[in-house]
Amino acid sequence: RECAKYSGAFHALGHAFELDQDEQSRPLAEALTFTADCYEAIGQLYESQPKRHLEPLMDDFFIYRGMLALVPDAVQIHK
Question: Which of 49, 55, 72, 75 yields a CA-CA distance of 20 to 30 A from 65?
Fold first, then answer.
């Protein structure tokens, strides 16, 4: 969320500098727009991060559950 807010603020600031017709403000406007795009990309990475970590964790839990199910059988063999 915060990255989206920062991105929106930098986009608005870059747009404000684009409205100025001065040639010196153009590089600043481009830099602000680029910064806004970077913050937007960072925000998207933060959003997709839990999706990448949950699936392998759930696979490990499934394997662990299978191992625990075999414990009573292993104990019966040793009795």
Answer: 49
Residue 42 contacts residue 3 (beta carbons within 8 Å):
yes
Tell me the per-residue pLDDT of 52-66, one tens digit each, with 9 for 90 and over.
677 778 888 888 888
pLDDT digits (tens, 9 = 90+) for 29-47: 999 999 999 999 999 888 8
What six digits make up the tokens of 14?
A: 């870059």
User: Do 32 and 14 touch, CB atoms closer than 8 A?
Assistant: yes
Q: 33-57 in b/e burial notation, b at 16+ Cβ within 10 A?
A: bebbeebbeebeeeeeeeeeeeeee
Dihedral sign computed on CA atoms, order 52, 54, 58, 60:
positive
